[in-house]
Design a protein that fits this description.
Elements lengths: L5 E2 L5 E4 L2 E4 L7 H24 L2 H17 L12 H17 L3
Antiparallel strand pairs: 1-2, 2-3
Helix pairs in contact: 1-2, 1-3, 2-3
Length: 104
């Protein structure tokens, strides 16, 4: 069982080992958030494989997918708490669309 993450009082960040990281947008529907997390983890695995293979092009492509997934989750880019509901929905949907085109 995964322990509940500590959040800052405003809910904008999680605290892991004393370091703040931007929290995932809590308004992303659970199925979409789970799919984005799966795509993020696959991209991170691909970064590692590319590094082991010393394949710079594959590494760049995988890192771009990591960035897309983290942006779609609201962990990068314009903070989700500064976006309208429509902008937030568009952000995660655009991320899912782009990542699906790169092979889901």
């Amino acid at each position: 069982m995964v322990a509940e993450q500590e959040h800052t009082p405003d809910g904008h960040f999680v605290v892991i080992d004393g370091r703040r990281w931007r929290a995932t947008d809590p308004e992303i529907p659970p199925e979409a958030a789970a799919r984005l997390r799966r795509l993020l983890m696959a991209a991170r695995r691909d970064v590692g494989a590319a590094l082991r293979a010393q394949d710079a092009e594959a590494e760049r492509e995988a890192r771009a997918r990591v960035h897309l997934a983290k942006t779609a989750l609201g962990e990068r880019g314009t903070p989700w708490w500064e976006q309208s509901a429509g902008e937030r929905r568009q952000r995660w949907q655009d991320g899912l669309d782009a990542l699906s085109q790169s092979g889901d």
